[in-house]
Amino acid sequence: MNNDGASHGLIQWHGTTIIGVRKGGKTVIAGDGQVSMGNTVMKPNARKVRRIGEGGKVIAGFAGATADAFTLFERLERKLEQYRGQLMRAAVELAKDWRTDKYLRNLEALMIVADADTLLVLTGNGDVLEPEGAAAGSSGGDSQITAIGSGGNYALAAARAIDAYESDAETIARKAMQVAADICVFTNDRVTVETV
Q1: pLDDT tens figures, 45-63
Q2: Whole-prediction pTM
Q3: How far is residue 150's CA from residue 169's CA, in Å, rounded to a whole number?
Q4: Around 86, how many Cα atoms within 13 Å sit in the side-chain half-sphere?
Q5: Tens of pLDDT along 84-102?
Q6: Residues near 39 by beta carbon (within 8 Å), at least 6 away in sequence
Q7: What does the alpha-carbon distance between residue 61 and residue 19 come to, in Å, rounded to a whole number?
Q8: DSSP state of 7
Q9: Helix or strand or coil: residue 36?
Q10: Which strands, in side-by-side order, build the sheet including 109-114?
Q11: Active site positions, annotated
Q12: Partners of residue 19 on adjacent β-strands
């Protein structure tokens, strides 16, 4: 795939699958551990999902350049401090900065962030995207599912299919990650999971 024309978070990142599932009052972000450079696995056990903010009440996962993602994590933590832990407000302010700041707009990453009440995807285009509510046919009625990275579409499709039959957000995320790892050569089954 040629990414020459892609910009600001829309590049298809290889070596990353991150999924966020919110269901039954539980929010989970899961990520695989594989980092690839071209066709080579550089590291099989990277940690792409972590807790941030005061008390670790926010969880975040990233796809993209690691240094860029850590810069964004730090900026988001500062915004969370500034806005007293209000994730939506902090995310919107980060997205504004990310889009307009000369330094930040060159960062190449996507993020899924969540707290107990909110699940969001943040992009360098200034997008703060909250996944749509319950998937069609979902028995839970309150589920939200989103995914990013090279295996993201596989994980998203699997999670949506599983959602109608599974009530636990973590189980959905783990099973979806396994499906993505079985299909996407840039995704492995060394999954890190954080829950709020």
Answers
A1: 989 999 998 899 999 999 8
A2: 0.87
A3: 21
A4: 8
A5: 999 999 999 999 999 888 8
A6: none
A7: 8
A8: -
A9: strand
A10: 49-52, 58-64, 109-114, 119-122, 128-129
A11: 16
A12: 30, 147
- Which residues does 137 contact at the CB level (< 8 Å), separation at least 6? 164
Q: Residue for token digits 């989970």?
A: 28
Taking the CA atoms of 18, 80, 133 and 25 in sequence, report the sign of the dihedral they define.
positive
The H or E element spanning position 128 is: strand 128-129
Query: What number of other Cβ atoms are within 10 A of residue 167's Cβ?
Result: 14
Alpha carbon distances (Å) from 174 to 3, 48, 82, 96, 158: 29, 15, 33, 32, 10
Mean pLDDT, range 72-90, rounded to an integer: 95
Pairing mode, strands 49-52 and 17-23: unpaired
Query: Which tokens go with 47?
Result: 């940690």
Bridge partners (DSSP) listed for residue 35: 43
CA–CA distance, 155 with 183 (Å, rounded to integer): 10
Question: Which tokens is 79 given?
Answer: 């915004």
- Which residue shows structure tokens 């850590």? 70
Backbone φ, ψ for residue 86 (5° rounding): -75, 100
Beta bridge partners of 144: 22
State the number of CA atoms in the 13 A half-sphere of 139 facing the CB.
9
